[in-house]
Specification:
The chain has no helices and 11 strands. It is mostly beta strands. The strands form 2 sheets. Strands 2, 4, 5, 6, 9, 10 and 11 form a 7-stranded mixed β-sheet that branches. The radius of gyration is 13 Å and the shape is globular. The termini are far apart.
């Protein structure tokens, strides 16, 4: 089993920054990629960013390109999401997810952390 624990959410003014962290424990040897998703009130969960655990290639949704950066620390089994130039539309619960195979599916999820951006 794998456990994912997010932290770092909070309330920030528009234009501000936050850094989210997600620590993985358990069967961490099986990590293939890690990702971040978000879900705003009344909306479906959407993909934000992902990173390959080996090699570190990244991919972002267009709406966060140039503002958000996903990174990782393999030794700590932790993935980060640096969020800069935050906008009110970034307000959502942010979830960390882990994939254990090459297929673009997500096998484990964290409990989520709230990010609120005030205008």
């Amino acid at each position: 089993q794998v456990q994912l624990v997010e932290s770092g959410g909070g309330l920030v003014q528009a234009g501000g920054s936050l850094r989210l962290s997600c620590a993985a424990s358990g069967r961490t040897f099986s990590i293939y990629r890690m990702g971040w998703f978000r879900q705003a009130p009344g909306k479906e969960r959407e993909f934000v960013a992902r990173i390959r655990w080996s090699g570190g290639s990244t991919y972002y949704v267009d709406s966060v390109k140039g503002r958000f950066t996903i990174s990782k620390d393999n030794a700590k089994n932790t993935v980060y999401l640096q969020m800069n130039s935050l906008k009110p539309e970034d307000t959502a619960v942010y979830y960390c997810a882990q994939s254990i195979s090459t297929r673009l599916t997500w096998d484990y999820w964290g409990q989520g952390t709230q990010v609120t951006v005030s205008s």
